[in-house]
Design brief:
The chain is mostly helical. The chain has one domain. The protein is 81% helix and 0% strand. Helix 1 (16-51) packs antiparallel against helix 2. The chain starts with 15 loop residues before the first helix and ends with a helix.
Amino acid sequence: MGFLIPPWYDEIVTSPQEVVFADIVLGFFLAVTCFAFAKAASQTATRWHRLKKFTTYLVMVWVDWAATILHSIIGWCVGHGTCAMYSSFWLFFSVACVWTIEMHCLAQILVNRVSLLLFNPSDARRLKLLVFVVVFVLTTSVTIVWIPARMQISERWIDVNDIWDRGEKVCFLIFDVALNMYFVHLVRSTLIANGLVKYQKLYWSNISIITLGILLDVSLSTLFSFCTECLSSILEHHY
């Protein structure tokens, strides 16, 4: 047993279909990661050529990219039982920390985009602080509940985590939609309304992304269950 893991800890065994499904998702993820790397590198080169320095936005982009890669590597190693990543407090704490960094960077990247359309610098600073506080409260609460639940300290922690896991996903969904809708509102009210019709494409593309994001968040669990059932049937038929 790892550090602070109780004697009654029951190691979760990953099924073959879950491993196969995770490998498929990882393959798509690697493709998207390469695209994100190329896009981030292009933006970095452009900003460096223009400003001769790294901006806060670029730092957050690269930190978020690296944290996402690290999160995926840890998840893959744990799921495949490799790299000697045994269940311990430090493993779960590391996963929670990496996830927290991802959430903060993603939120601040979105706020940075919104701030470009806020002509009052004090309003932009207040929005960034508000977003930081909201994300800090959500991620801290998730970490406090998730780590004891994953360590199986008691059934109460596991039950609370099952409830709060759904609750925090709803909170993040509302938070993400609110920020994106605020950005869309600013595009329409400050750019398009003043005759800059070329930003209509940006407006409608963001509407499409918001709609797609909501549909994915709502249907992801259903899609996962469907795919694992299909993979289970395929593996049973094959073997």
